[in-house]
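Milestone M4 deliverable, item 7.
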Amino acid sequence: MKVGIVGCGLIGAKRAKALTSRHQLIAVADLDKNRAAKLAAEYGPDCAAFSDWSEVVAHPQVELVIVATTNNTLTPVAMEAVRLGKPVLMEKPGARSASELAPLVELADARRVPVKIGFNHRFHPAFLKAREIWQSGESGELMYIRGRYGHGGRLGYEKEWRADPQTAGGGELLDQGVHLIDLARLFAGDFTGVEGHLGTFFWQMPVEDNGFMLLKTPRQQVAWLHVSCTEWKNLFSFEIFGRDAKLQIDGLGGSYGVERLTYYKMLPQMGPPETTAWEYPGEDLSWSAEFNYFIECIEAGWEPEGNLHDALAALKIIERLYEQSSVAHYTGADPV
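Output delivered:
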């Protein structure tokens, strides 16, 4: 397919790199035209660079649009692409709020245009293996999930776009929390009980720098999740507790440490479990795995997992947590 990318920052560049030789990047756009031109130059003279995102979406040769912008622009760009019948891969969280995303869900469903949200964590090899084991049933019934996801700060963090509720929609809960919620839903299903606490403990900014969540399924299975941008040393840990075994994913590669899945199988006599571990060193291939999966869904006419409905469900949970908190978040009141 011929691909266009809107947003040429770190994530846009990762998405471009994830394209295989079967596909061609032919148009990119960024508010910073120089940044767009720099990315386009890496993909040859046939890749055009624009400062106006509508030039990419309306480009007559672009067949698929990747949206890697700040949160306030994700839905408007995707809406226009869907109106033109073009499949969309858009970054998480998809929108600043559930109410902002809902019209896109309705439009994509009505037009039958496939839209995939960038929940690339689903495609990390440790999670792919963990899901394979989980679906075999050998871990037993789910009891609870425990997840932690945090990163350190950097000078000036409180002045970046992620600290602006109007641009980002919220803070750490919306940024990294949406990943943990999506992964918890992947193993536990829908959550009907939503409690938590959001706080700004360190950074002098209006949005939260930490989010604590207690989510419950209708069967009272629990996900206890914590996201933080005061972790100081990047950390990722996700544990799925079944009645007969535990699956534990640690690290995401890079600064988060080597990605590892450990499977703790309870023995009939209990005591120390039977332990098996898999490590996945090397390059993060989740971006290319997610893109290839989306292409497969488009070609086969399948509804992709990690879709708009998954994003909407996660955003509704996030919205309920913001309603319980006094921290700043997007309320649907854009300045004129």
